[in-house]
Every structure is written in structure tokens, then in C-alpha cells.
Design a protein that fits this description.
8-stranded parallel beta barrel, TIM Barrel, binds 1,3-dihydroxyacetonephosphate, alpha/beta, 10 helices
């Protein structure tokens, strides 16, 4: 599997922001890694239209468990696929916190994503209190086994380890801490999925920026990044793409 540089725009970006995708592709038309941007749902169809056939995948940030129905305000995986998305982020800590998403719900959403032929990016990670209490690996293991969809393979699932305390704070774990969690997740994936578990990409997310990307990408079992703030600007995300391509 190629490494993956993924950007999560969260609730940021109007049509003017599509220009960042054009600039990114102009600078990185054929990177050695895969590139993915997940803009807000309102931009997915336009983004996918403008990047069709190019080296930039477009993804969603959430989906419903059902394909359609009476669920005001929600978007199904099939709708994301129809709009041109290839991936969907699921179980982001902001959704777990803001919308009370449980592991079981994230798993059901991920299964809906696979059924719609989307690649599911399943997020997990500890809070600062959980890390301080020495619960990081147990928590990450619970989230992994509880959230991973039935039918997961190296091709249709990506894991993103995002320590909650590192998101949007400018703080990152030490490289040893990142290595410890990624090695643990790799072993747990191998237990759950056998041979495929060795191929599932494990992304690191949380305050990744151009200045720290290369050292993070040198860590064993870091197969890419899920980038928030630094994915909003083509120059910053492009520098992260370049660092991953060189890793
Ligand atoms: P930041 O890169 O802004 O810390 O956000 C990380 C994140 O939550 C990506 O999903």
C-alpha cells in the first residue's frame, strides 16, 4: 500500500478554498504517496469534479449507518460515493465528543462505508487524562477492536491514531510514544485481520506540520498522516506530502 497524506478540513472552507486544491495539484501532480483531502460535505461534489482523474482523492468526514431514509441532516455513504468521494473519516474524536459517537456506532458507520465502496479511515486516540493514567494502549486497543468494521482489509480500511490532546494544540507525543502506539496497533491489527493487518495503513494525526512531518514519518509503522489545520493551505499540506513522499 502506498503511504497516505490525508487532510481533514473539518468545518472550514467555502468554494473559494477549492483554489487550494488546484494549487496543491499544480505543485504535486504525481507524488509518490497518495493524497486525500476531506473538505466539508458542501464542497465534496465540486472538489471531486475539479480533481477527477488527478492525484488527489476527495473524502467525507462522517456518514450515516443507513443508505437512505428519514434522518434529517445526515448524509449516507452511498451519497458521498455518488458525490465523488473515495474515502470517509469515521470516529474522529471531535465526533466522538460532540455527537457522543460510540465504538459500536463508528463500526456500523464503517460497515456502511465499505458497503458503499468507500475506504473507511477509522480514528482513535486517548485523552490527556487517559495517557496520564497509563491507559493509552488499553484505550486504543478497545477503540480499535470496537470500531473496526467486519470485512476490513488492507485495501478498504485505514487507521488514524490521533491523541486527543495533540489535536489543534501544537503539542505532539514524543517519537517514542508514537512508535509505541503504532507498534501496538500493528500487532492488534495482525491479531484481528491476520496477514491483512500488516498492510493496513496506520496514520498519525495531531499537530502535524511541515516542521515535524519528516521526523514523524521516519517512525516505524507510521504510514502517513491525518492533518487538520496544516491541510487548509496548499503550501503547508504540499510540504507534508513532499516529506511523506521522501520517507
Ligand atoms: P490538527 O492537525 O489541526 O492538530 O488536527 C488533527 C486532526 O484532528 C485531523 O483529523
Amino acid at each position: 500500500m502506498k503511504k497516505l497524506a490525508a487532510g481533514n478540513w473539518k468545518m472550514n472552507g467555502t468554494t473559494a478554498a477549492l483554489e487550494e486544491m488546484r494549487v496543491l495539484l499544480a505543485a504535486h501532480p504525481a507524488p509518490a504517496c497518495e493524497m486525500l483531502l476531506c473538505p466539508p460535505a458542501t464542497l465534496i461534489a465540486q472538489a471531486a469534479y475539479h480533481t477527477k482523474g488527478k492525484a488527489l482523492h476527495i473524502g467525507g468526514q462522517d456518514c450515516h449507518t443507513k443508505a437512505s431514509g428519514a434522518h434529517t441532516g445526515d448524509i449516507s455513504a452511498a451519497m458521498l460515493k455518488d458525490a465523488g468521494a473515495s474515502h470517509v473519516i469515521l470516529g474522529h474524536s471531535e465526533r466522538r465528543a460532540d455527537h457522543g459517537e460510540t465504538n459500536a456506532l463508528v463500526k456500523a458507520k464503517a460497515e456502511a462505508a465499505l458497503a458503499a465502496d468507500l475506504i473507511a479511515i477509522v480514528c482513535l486516540g486517548e485523552t490527556e487524562a487517559q495517557r496520564d493514567a497509563g491507559e493509552t494502549l488499553a484505550l486504543c486497543g478497545n477503540q480499535l477492536h470496537g470500531s473496526i468494521p467486519a470485512g476490513a482489509t488492507a485495501a478498504n480500511v485505514v487507521i488514524a491514531y490521533e491523541p486527543v490532546w495533540a489535536i489543534g494544540t501544537g503539542r505532539t507525543p514524543t517519537l517514542e510514544q508514537i512508535a509505541e502506539v503504532h507498534a501496538f496497533l500493528r500487532a492488534e491489527l495482525a491479531k484481528a485481520l491476520g496477514e491483512d493487518g500488516h498492510g493496513v495503513r496506520i496514520l498519525y494525526g495531531g499537530s502535524v506540520k511541515p516542521s515535524n512531518a519528516a521526523e514523524i514519518f521516519a517512525v516505524q509503522d507510521v504510514d502517513g498522516a491525518l492533518v487538520g489545520g496544516a491541510s487548509l493551505k496548499a503550501a503547508d499540506f504540499g510540504a507534508i506530502v513532499a516529506a511523506l513522499s521522501a520517507a
